[in-house]
Amino acid sequence: MNNQDLLAVAKEYGSPVYVYDAEKIEFQYNRLTKAFSKVNDLRIHYAVKALSNISILKFLNSLGCGLDTVSIQEVKLGLEAGVDPARIIYTPNGVSLEEIEQVTKLGVQINIDNLSILEQFGSRHPDVPVCIRINPHIMAGGNSKISVGHVDSKFGISIHQMPHLLRIVENTGMNINGIHMHTGSDILDIEVFLRASEILFEAAKNFPDLEFLDFGSGFKVPYRPGDIETDIEELGEKLTERFRNFCRDYGRELTLAFEPGKYLVSEAGKFLARVNVIKQTTSTVFAGIDSGFNHLIRPMFYGSHHEIHNISNPDGKQRFYSVVGYICETDTFASNRRISEITEGDILAFSNAGAYAFSMASNFNSRYRPAEVLWYNGQAHLIRERETFDDLLRHQKIIDLEPQKQD
């Protein structure tokens, strides 16, 4: 997609609007599979929570990608998209036993991350194959809110609880067919990831009937020019060697699985917003746009960086702007950022808007959630309509109320 393509999308579908480039998603998927091409059986499960539009799920399914889900709703979306249940893994956190049992009936791979539910599920369903999520106690991730493998994390069963875990498995006679880990997002150092993988290999030796090892994901993508990213080719070479050695020692070939979300869709996404007002104070020039953290909360929630380009005036003189939204709380997308000169009515494009962007959008301030567009084969395809006022009222119940009489 070039600037003219994006401007045409904004003109046709209005702003704000999310646009996803199918070609970039496919490129990232192929890059990952190529990096691990020497693995005999590689399985990629896309993390649905990153971007759950059903057209995106159908496209990834067409590439041969499975799904990583964290809720029964995501499982059902995957099935609706035509994904084979055998290629869906369900990795919830803190959900009820009842939900896990409902998902079991849908035929997907269950992944359990706490001892209490593991024992209850194993006692009631010993024949259902279960994967176990291990917490390797390895700190990874670019932000404390997305680091999930550390010692005080709510995710996974502590590697130090292995004796307790094994007693549960023995007492229930349950079928453990996979071991899983996820250290966190935005992995900067592959050596940290490899150290965690060695812990997973060691844990796997306790289970004689494994079919796969799932290494999660968290691969970092660049957010600005020259930014560091996970060296997926180096990781592929080093982890493949370790995995093949493990399979040889284990006595048979296993499946190597990953669960990338951001890695596949982040760079494919652009968020387009129109500038409503230029406001200059004594020290700052604000560019106020027709959106806010109700549509893109990552900068406020994670402190994430999104490159912002004025695609209406890409070659204009560079000036410094603070890009802000219209929410009646502080919602700053960028402070004192160098951007081509902005005038009211210009369209700004936010990069890396494919992951955890629309999927975290809300109706805060009773604003409508934006449209979504997939750029596929050189054409724009609407994959979600912009919400309307009727959507805000759709599930509300209006009742007649009268003032209470005062004695």
Automatic annotation (TrEMBL):
Orn/DAP/Arg decarboxylase 2 C-terminal domain span: 18-354
Cofactor(s) the protein requires to work: pyridoxal 5'-phosphate
Key word Transport present: no
Keyword line: Amino-acid biosynthesis, Decarboxylase, Lyase, Lysine biosynthesis, Pyridoxal phosphate
Superkingdom of origin: Bacteria
Classification via HAMAP family: LysA
Protein name: Diaminopimelate decarboxylase
Species of origin: Salegentibacter chungangensis
